[in-house]
Write a structure and sequence with these properties.
alpha/beta, 406 residues, six-stranded mixed beta sheet, 15 strands, 36% helix, VC0802-like
Length: 406
Amino acid sequence: MTQATPETKPYAPKVKERTVIVVRLGEITLKKKNRPFFVRQLGRNIRTALKGLPIKDTDWNPQRIVITPGAGFDWPELRSRLLRVFGLRNFSLCRVLPWDEDLIREGMLEMAAKEPFESFRVTVQRSDKRYPSTSQEMERSLGADVKAASGARVDLTKPEKTFQVEIMSNGAYLHTERINGAGGLPVGVSGRVVALLSGGIDSPVAAWRTLSRGCQVSFVHFQSFPYLDASSRDKAITLTESLTRWQYKSRLHVVSFGDIQHKIVAACPAPLRVVLYRRFMVRIAQAIAERERAEALVTGESLGQVASQTLSNMATIDQATTLPILRPLVGLDKESIIDEARAIETYETSIEPDQDCCTLFVPRNPATHSSVEQLIAAEEALDVDALVAEGLESVELLEFSWPEAS
C-alpha cells in the first residue's frame, strides 16, 4: 500500500514591505567580460550623486541596482540627482510587497486612488516563474479591480496610467512610472580627456557628450584679460559648475592668452591669425593634458560654422598636437546644438554677453583654407616653445565638486 505524501507547500519568499528605487542598466549590460567593472563604477557614481541624502543601502547586480532610501527621503531631489547619472536606462520608485495577490491588489488600488486618470493598463512581468499565477491571469484580475475602483477605461496602446508589477525572487515590485535615465556609459570607465571650454554654446555640449561616453573631463579656458574683461572666465566657471553635476569632480585651468595673441598679431599674416590662435591653444591644452594624464583633447567645433572650422583648417590645427582631438559636434547643425544646450541647462549661461578671447584681434578676412606648410612658415617668426611656456606659467587652477554635502 502506497503511503500518501503531504502536498508540497508553494514557494513564497520572506519579504519585508518597503520602498525602494529600482535602477535598470543600459548599454553596460552589453559589455560581457567588462560588465562587472562598468557596474562597479556605476555603483560608485550613484553613491557619490546621492551623497548627503538618507540612503540605507545600495545593492547592485549585472542587470539592476536597488537603492533603499531612509526615512523621510526627498523623492524629487533623489530623482533629480539620478537623472544626471550616466549609465542608467531608466528607474522607478517601487513598493515591495510579499507574494500575496490580495496584498498586491490592495497596493495597486492604493496607487490608483492617489490621482484620477481616464485610461490605464496593467503590465505584469513574472521574472520568477515559481509565482503560481501567470502574468496574463494577474493582468486580467488586477485590471478588473482597478477598472471597478476607478471607473477608468482600459487602453493597451496609449494609456494615461500604467500600473506595473514585477514578480522577483525577493518580492513583488509595484510602480507606475519608468523614468528615462541619461543613458550612455558611467563617467570614469573610458579614461580622461581635456576639453577646451569657451563661454559659448558649443563647447559645453561637446564636453557633455564626452562625459556621456564615460570620460572624465578636465577643462581649459583661454581668456584675454587684461585686454578684455574677465566675463568669459566667470562664464567658464559657471559652466564648469553645471557640468560637474554630471561627473562630481572637475578641474578648470584658466590660461591668460592675451599676450600670446598680441605677439602672434605683431609677427604673423592677418588671415592666418585665427588658425594660429587655435594651434597655440591645442599646444597648451596638450601640455595640460599631460599633467592630467589625459589621452585626448575635446573641442566644440562643428564643420563649417566659422572660419577655423573648415576641413583644411581643422587639419592644420590637428597637426599642432600629437594627441587626438575629439569633435563630438562635428556633424551637427547649430539648431541641434542649441537644443542640446537647453536640455543640459547650459544655454542660458552661454548666451550671456561676454568678451571672449576669440573676439580679440580678429582679422577682417580670416583664411578659410590653410595648409600645414603655410602655418609652419608663419610660426617661424615666433618662439613657439616660449609662448607655450608663457601660457602654462599663467594657468590658474580651479577645482569643483558636487554634491557639496558630506
